[in-house]
Fold this sequence. Notes:
The protein is an alpha+beta fold. The strands form four sheets. It has a seven-stranded mixed β-sheet, covered by helices on one side. About 20% of the residues are buried. The N terminus is likely disordered.
Amino acid sequence: MSSLSLSGYRDAVCMLRHRNITYLNCFVETPGVGPDHLIGCNYENEHCKVRFEKRDDRRDGTAKGDGSAEILKAQRWRWSRQLGSWYIPQSRDRRAKHPHINSTAAALRTVGFTVEVDINDHHRPSSEVEADKLARQAARVDTLDAKADRKTRTAETAWEAERDAYSALPEAGEPIKVGHHSETRHRRAVEKSWNALGRAVESERVAATARGRADAAAKNTDHRYAPVTVARRIEKLTVELRRLERARDGYARTLHTTKQTGQKYVETHAAATGDHRERLLTEIDHTAEQLSYWEGVRAHQLAEGVATAYGREVIVKGDLVRYAGHDHRVLKVNAKSVTIGSSEGGSWTDRVPYSEIRGLRDAEGNAVRIVEGARVIATGPSAA
Length: 384
């Protein structure tokens, strides 16, 4: 847990904490008031948030004019009304942003705070993180649905008001009689009808936007666990794990080879040591745990038939693969992809990762299914 104790500036004492749910505890002491009247706040890494707690004579939130808001804003902190706290964007369930925290501490020291920082980069299990994410997403969907319903009712009310205002106008489009005693009343009715129409149209737009956001949020979880998305995430985590392991063990890479002499210019990186090695070991464990979780999700999708394990064992040259809404002839089968003709109609070729393939047919157009890792060609009327 990280502590950031602030003192010396308007008799303030503050503590900054960072962990898997990182938080910053701040206590502001009023001159002449005992410690029971301190103002406390928490900064959590799930949103890296700063939350002020109320107890006895404590009060919630930062004090206006104490200089904290200006410093936090300058250090790219944001205030969340929903959380009732300050937070660092994109910090939930991620490794502590050491440069960000250190720069914040330095800025606070500059104006007279005494700052102590203690960071614990412990990661929550991926299953717990995902369960928490799904719960938050479900709550967000409910909130947006309720908002969309409210905006829809507001739009309906606005249209009713517009119809009432329109019906109050003289019949048959009677023009305004300039100089007549009815001129002022007539102009007010026209203006009221016009304003009501504008409010109704704007309410309809707001309602449509709210409904669109609610529908998009409802699909977010499905997109996150779509077979293609899961496969891409596994590939990304696999690459990241290899990168971390190379940095841990050290590696060498060839930067350039001289054609005339064949001499190679090699860049060598020694194995990580000290604190850097400890951070790498923590990141390796965390990445390996994430990879294991998503591989389990992928295995479940394969077992349920939601996803299909295409690979070089079941695809042959000449097959038709379904990609980007079209069937493409396979020109070559590679280790991680297939080579097809240009999807744009050009003379070049494109590569399609196996995880991007949506369907498979043989050269004659018969559907190919994967049964227990084996290629099975469906023939007859049901083949389509």
